[in-house]
Amino acid sequence: MIHESGAQYDIGSVRFTVVNDGTHYYDAGAIFGVVPRVMWERVAPPLDDQYRMATGLNCVLLRSEGKTVLIETGVGGKPGDRDSASPAEDGTLLDSLAALDVTPEQIDIVINTHLHSDHCGWNTSVDESSSGDDELLRPTFPNATYVISEREWHDATHPNERTRATYLERNLGAIADRLELVDGETDITSEVKFLPTPGHTEGHGCVAISSGGESGIYTGDIVQHRVQLERTAWVAGLDVLPMVSMETKRQLADRMIEEQALVIMTHAQYPGVMRMERTEQGYRKLVDVEPSEG
Predict the structure, then answer these.
(1) Is this model's pTM higher than 0.85 or not?
(2) If the chain, 294 residues long, is cut into consecutive pieces of 10 residues, what is the mean pLDDT of each piece?
(3) CATH classification of 7-127+137-288, choosing from 3.60.15.10, 3.10.20.90, 3.90.320.10, 3.90.1010.10?
(4) Cα-Cα-Cα-Cα dihedral sign, residues 79, 83, 86, 92
(5) Could you give the 3-state DSSP secondary structure of residue 73?
(6) Segments in 27-137 forming alpha helices (H)
(7) Among 11, 43, 58, 262, which is most exposed with the fewest C-beta within 10 angstroms?
(8) What is the C-alpha to C-alpha distance for residues 182 and 119, in angstroms, rounded to an integer?
(9) Main-chain dihedrals φ then ψ at residue 284, nearest 5 degrees
């Protein structure tokens, strides 16, 4: 069952809630890259009149070692942030947090898997004291440390012709003095780890959660659709390092199976929590997991 305050799951003694920023709409052909349309249409959900696929914006809220941790921040609420997403009146990340009686000021740590605009939009908000051309931005979570890959921060703040459309200064500048830049596997707490997973971007990372012999992995954008983790050769047109992405997904899928880890998928339909299994034929298969009771 999904509680009014969100879908809750347990990894050992860590309880997390999938909070969400609504729905994001993206071109289906870009998501599936070089995979022929006749193949991906079998697994894709209905598309809108612009041939866009509705994707989730699933973020994660948890407590670990006395810290309130938010993984990913969705598309945001600044002017222009929701042009390709469900409107703010339909619900946003901040509404989802409020339903849990969590205020932005209570967030201690924000972890961004990477800095594409649909993953870090709520990093910043418009300062209410500003107006018109004098619009000022501030950190949405004013007491939080923002944990980001050092490589990703560099690439996001030095975009090229391809990446500048999604690495947006409006999501970055106001948090520049609140960063913890990490390099390689990094413990955020003893239960939460930043895990480098290059491919979608060079500095992309997943988030691994472990407690009591159980584990979970928040995928970020290493996949945009579940089939891309079941069939690792299905590389998104959005991945800047496609061959690296294939190998990263293979290693990640093997780890998920070995650890029987919960798979928390950013862009799956809410709540997007699954487990990876092998079929009798040896294929990978993701199976949805129901939220915890109580």
Answers:
(1) yes
(2) 73 97 96 94 88 96 97 97 96 97 98 98 89 80 98 97 94 97 98 98 98 98 96 95 97 97 97 96 95 81
(3) 3.60.15.10
(4) negative
(5) coil
(6) 28-32, 37-40, 93-98, 117-120
(7) 43
(8) 18
(9) -80, 145
